[in-house]
């Protein structure tokens, strides 16, 4: 057993193959719908099923999406790429082959930057990204002694993104995967939905003695579809390999499956080589040729990417870099934030605090996405404005926020209905301060004798009396004045 999961003396090497389902409405080579969740076998036509005599027609939208991805990761977008048949038998593949790309993929030589364990920026090479079709799905659940095949997914467009073996820990692998996940969603080329299988990954994992140049033998962990499982599965696999080698054994090249229920990886099949598939150029599809003008047009359409957006948020709104990073985690969140700021004017930091704090907390609590928020950007802006103009204190605002979340209406209505307006009238605050001082002679004496910390006690009393509605700054000032006289 390697000491409590420590990998001392061993270097971990990981390369990821990510399958991102492209967000087209129709399939890569046919007009069938790609919508998720339809009745089995209602969205596969003769092309998807590979009937003899039918011809695939390339969906040009997938070319645009792949090119956009390539440009976003500083890759070369091939002016000429070729589809190839990858031949194998499987019940969910009635054609007997999958149309993919082998020798001439559409995207090559890209890169992505992650932050490593020491906080340094680290470059991860992207070997290639190629277009291919998905297969169908075998169904075992609820079928007793038989299995079913659902071919709705057959022919769904995928972009397979292959990294160099540059990742050195499960954490780095997850960081890289999250970056790719963010990018494809920013680009609008994949919804990245991991539960629905729109974004999944195979992790190739090996270990080698520290300092050794040659790569160790790898095992491939198939179809991981949650960030948490990926990290767990890789760590388990690393430990298994180290144990094995330290016990005098060897790692065999194979495909393994991660079982999240048992929290173990187990062998699925021995690894096949490319030549087992007898790849050959698909005679039914012409090579994909794209012009420089086309690529320039795609480049022109590139949306602002996370890194650029993050620095703009720092420059334009004066946000802390960490806040800017959180707010640009997804395009939807960044758009929401900007909508709040636009509607409130000069309160960018307060807006950031509310989006990152209470709003994110509430969304999290209910497992919702920003797109499903109970509070619209305009309504949150309404609340932020009332904090900014001192109508309510930050503390009361939390109460208003919860009421808004529960659907009680916009901030102004709630503030009026519940009488939550902040008390800024000095004479009203003074009256309460006088009562508090009169009611607590002992504390007053102690304070005057030098126990400064008691100011908190008095502030607390005044806030209690005013149900939290007195302006805290004024309360502090008035108390200090009165107690020192
Ligand atoms: P295959 O075609 O068999 O899937 P590739 O050579 O295309 O294999 O590599 C697939 C992935 O495996 C790539 O992400 C690559 O970086 C990674 N990889 C290759 N060799 C190793 C290794 N020894 N250890 C870890 N990852 C590796
Ligand atoms: Mg592979």
Description:
The chain has about 475 residues and is α+β, with helices and mostly antiparallel strands. The protein is built from 16 helices and 16 strands. The protein folds into 3 domains: about 10-295, no CATH class; about 305-420, no CATH class; about 425-485, Orthogonal Bundle (Arc Repressor Mutant, subunit A). It has helices at about 45-50, 60-70, 170-185, 225-245, 290-300, 305-315, 320-325, 330-345, 350-365, 375-390, 395-405, 410-420, 425-440, 440-450, 455-465, 470-485; strands spanning about 10-20, 75, 80, 85, 95-100, 105-115, 120-135, 135-140, 150, 155-165, 200-210, 220-225, 255-260, 265-270, 280, 290. It has a 9-stranded mixed beta sheet. Strands 5-4-15 form a 3-stranded antiparallel beta sheet, with no helix packed on it. Strands 3-16 form a two-stranded antiparallel sheet. A hairpin with an 8-residue loop joins strand 8 and strand 9 (about 150). Adenosine-5'-diphosphate binds near residues 15, 218 and 274.
